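Technical note accompanying the year-one report. For the benefit of new consortium partners, we illustrate the data format agreed upon in the data management plan: each record pairs a sequence with a C-alpha cell string. No post-processing was applied to the example shown here.
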Amino acid sequence: MSDAAQHKPETLNDVVWRALANRSFVIGLLITLAVAAMALVSFFWTPFDVTRLVVADRMQPPSSTHWFGTDHFGRDVLSMIMLGSRNSIAVALVAVGIGMGIGVPLGCWAAARGGWIDEALMRLNDLVFAFPALLSAVMITAVFGPGAINAIIAIGIFNIPVFARVARAGALAIWPREYILAARAAGKGPARITVEHILPNIANLLLVQGTIQFALGILAEAGLSYVGLGAQPPMPSWGRMLFDAQTVMVVAPWLALFPGCAILLTVLGLNLLGDGISDIFDPRARRRP
C-alpha cells in the first residue's frame, strides 16, 4: 500500500479527538476556562462589595459566610480574588496582544527581507529584550506614574522581541520550501506569501508561545502589583493582596494562601494548555501505525 493511502489528510475531527485524548490539554483548558468564567462572573456579581469596609468583620477566618475569610479592612477575600482575576487576565491579554501584533509582523518581515534589515531588527530585539518587564515598568512609571495601563505597556514591550524571534525562526524554516518557491515563481510577492503560506504554517508556534507569554504576563502583573507598580487601590489585584498579607501571615495565613493559589492555578493551567497544544500539533503525533 502506498504512503498516500496509508497517511490520509487530517480532518477537524482528528484534531478534536487528539485534543480530547491529551490529558495536559484537557486539564489546562478546564482550569483556564474556570478562571475565565470567574473573571466574567465578577462583572455582574461578587459575594460582597469590596469597596465597603466592615471593620467589625476584619481578619475573619474562612467560614460559611466568608468562604476565603476577610482581610484587615473586613473585605471579602473571595470577592477580591474574583475581581483580581479580571484585572490579571485583562493586563496579560492586552500585553500579549501588543507583543503578538507588533512582534509577529516584524519577525516575518525580517525573515522575508533578510540581509541588513534582518540583522538590524534582531539587534534591536536584543536591546529591548535586555530590559525585563519589571525594569521597563519602573522606567515608565517614573515618568507617567503607576497604574494598570503602564503595566500593560511594560509587559507588552517585553513581549514584542519574544514573538518576533518565534515568528522569524518559524518563517526562516518555511521560506526554502518548494511550495514557497512555486508561489514566488507564480508572481506572488513577499507580503502575500507571508499572509497566505507563512502565517498559517507557524500559527501553532505562535499559539503555543501565546499561552506561555499569557502565563508569564499573569506573573509579571502580580509582581508589578506587589511592588506597587500595577493596578492601584481600590482595584483588587492578586499581587497587591500578597503584599498586604505579608505583614499578617502569622495570624491570617489565608490572606496569602488564596491569592497565591489563584496565581499558581492560573499559571499552571496556561502552561498545561500550552504543552497540550504543542503535543496536538506535533507532527509525530499525527503518524498512524
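Partners are asked to follow this layout when depositing records. The mean pLDDT is 85.
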